[in-house]
Amino acid sequence: MDFNSSIRFAAVCNSKGDILWHSQRTGIKNIIPLADTKKTLQRAVSAWQERSKITDIVGRGLYVIAAYEKIKRITIPLDAGNLLFISIANEPLQKSKSKSYGHLVEMGKIMSIVDFVNSTK
Fold it and tell me: How many separate helices (H) and strands (E) can be counted in the chain?
């Protein structure tokens, strides 16, 4: 959360979708209750297990971004079957009357942190 002020929430869950760790930005109100986030994590784990069936064809999955009007939800597979889940504010970079689809996510920075954590094990 320190490197990007748009990050609202982050969690790590295990292969069953149980939350092992989570953190929420101070002063941010949940858009989605934690109980519903837990259900989302269980579905995300299942989806990553399905994606793993085509790894031999397309390579290892790196991340998935689901974009909504208010937030982006990112899932990243970690070692040992764990999953990193990040919720990012989907606010426009500039206030304008034109329709905004949100700002880009800096996946390079996020993935460099994931790579660093995985390399220290």
Answer: 3, 5
